[in-house]
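Researcher: Here's a chain I'd like modeled. Treat it as a single chain, no partners, no ligands.
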Amino acid sequence: MPQLISYIFQTIASFVVLMVVYMLLALTDYQGGIGGLIGLTFFQPIMGAIFSVLTILACTILGLPIRLSKSIRHWWVRRPFIPILLFVTAVVFIIIAFLPDQMQWGSYWEGDSEIPIRIPNLYFIATGWFTLAFALLHFYPLGAILAKGEQHKNSRR
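Model: Modeled as a single isolated chain. Structure tokens:
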């Protein structure tokens, strides 16, 4: 039961953070106009929810060994710095995607003309996105605290 509650909390936290990141990325693509505002307000949150759910599903499947194997879970919970390091790495990847040297050229059509634009590096964004989701889904701060308390209690005996 505690594992289910932990998974539900991790899933909700991951979904919220991924939605915030998605909407921030969508804001960087906003070109203005009423059509863009409608897309940003109505369609982008739907796409963000779909991408977030699919990402959470994929990262849950990738992290099944952590959830199902007691020895791997015990090892992972005792090292909370790993998901924290993954989280920081993911944020750095997303920031790197927006550096001028890493930007890529793209284009969109406005009327009859093609307008070139600079877009963030999609490889860094995708890597940061999935790393962020994995780190959030497999972060057990309470488990690490309880493990430290148990270790301290055993050392006093």
